[in-house]
Design a protein that fits this description.
The chain is an alpha/beta fold. It has a single domain, classed as Metal-dependent hydrolases (TIM Barrel). The protein contains 17 helices and 8 strands. Helix 1 packs antiparallel against helix 15, helix 5 runs parallel beside helix 7 and helix 16 packs antiparallel against helix 17. The protein binds adenine (ADE) and zinc ion.
Length: 335
């Protein structure tokens, strides 16, 4: 098997997927029709043609508009179920899914509709597809600390249905430290902590995520390579980076996939993982990300296995489930 074939075939975990970013144009149109909404795009093709991004903000504007078709619990369930079918096809055996409740509650959608719809899809994925799945609630960093606290409060009645919190949306100008107190409260609640940092923002934002928010993973983190002391710290602590190669390409973080830092991150001994971020918008799910990265950077068989192992090492699963996932990988490598 070539490294590319191996990458597609082996079991893996996805740890950086915004469920609203898995909403394909076809489903956006179907949900708009079901909910009696009209869209400012004439067709699926016209909408897809608008997916030409110059930076993170140009994407976020379209991403939030797309999410506006989600109104009812069933919409959230159907969106997540469509993602799980794609994940299964790519041999994803575990996934930790981001959701952006503020995008929905600001439109009057009840928190319960969002969380129950997503959570029932996770239960179904476990039962019908053998995929373990958890939810991570993300705060939108362009909104206020006060709004984040109110969102946490509204979500707490559903506490057993999500395992952690994250921080996403427009990065530059909204440093992690803006949310230090919210994350401190989440830590007291035994929530797992992650944050987007170093996607477009500087290495200083990654330091803030680590030191002020006390995150257990960094989402993206590709700009860490600009700061050798930070790279040394990330390597020393085995701090996972949930890297999203096709996202970085589509949002112009890198000019070409051949310039992507993934190989340098691995060679520096960092716990880097491959993820799809917003697959409906960036041109591919997990295996597309794996395969295109392996080919562009000529990753070796060992690199591919390391990436899959890192995804399980970085997962928020029990020790027992982690051992099970690692064993599945070992079995796939020898067979
Ligand atoms: N929300 C969805 N995708 C995102 C990304 N790549 N960065 C920040 N916020 C996001
Ligand atoms: Zn992301």
């Amino acid at each position: 098997m070539t490294p590319t074939q191996l990458a597609a075939a082996i079991p893996k975990a996805e740890l950086h997927i915004h469920i609203e970013g898995s909403l394909e144009p076809e489903l956006i149109f179907a949900l708009a029709q079901r909910n009696g909404l009209s869209l400012p795009y004439a067709s699926v093709e016209v909408l897809r043609a608008a997916y030409a991004f110059t930076d993170l903000q140009s994407f976020l504007d379209i991403y939030y508009a797309g999410a506006s078709v989600l109104l009812h619990e069933a919409d959230f369930h159907d969106m997540a179920w469509a993602y799980f079918l794609r994940a299964k096809a790519d041999n994803v055996v575990h996934t930790e899914i981001f959701f952006d409740p503020q995008t929905h509650t600001a439109r009057g959608v009840p928190m319960a509709a969002v969380i129950n719809g997503l959570s029932s899809a996770c239960d179904r994925a476990r039962a019908e597809l053998g995929i373990s799945a958890s939810l991570i609630l993300c705060f939108l960093r362009h909104l206020s600390e006060e709004d984040a606290f109110a969102t946490l409060e509204a979500a707490l009645p559903h506490r057993p249905r999500f395992i952690g919190v994250g921080l996403d949306s427009s990065e530059v100008g909204h440093p992690p430290s803006k949310f230090s107190r919210v994350f401190a409260r989440c830590r007291e609640l035994d929530l797992r902590l992650v944050a987007h940092a170093g996607e477009e923002g500087p290495p200083a934002y990654i330091w803030e995520a680590l030191n002020d928010l006390k995150t257990e993973r960094i989402d993206h983190g590709v700009r860490s390579l600009e700061d050798p002391a930070l790279v040394a710290e990330l390597a020393r602590t085995r701090m996972p980076l949930t890297v999203c190669p096709l996202s970085n390409l589509k949002l112009c973080v890198v000019r070409d996939l051949k310039d992507h830092p993934m190989k340098r991150l691995l060679d520096a001994g960092l716990c880097a993982t491959v993820n799809s971020d917003d697959p409906a918008y960036f041109g591919g799910y997990m295996n597309a990300n794996f395969v295109q990265t392996v080919e562009a950077l000529r990753l070796s068989r060992d690199d591919v296995i390391t990436l899959a192992r890192n995804s399980f090492e970085a997962s928020f699963v029990s020790d027992e489930r982690r051992a099970e996932l690692m064993a599945k990988l070992d079995q796939a490598i020898v067979s």
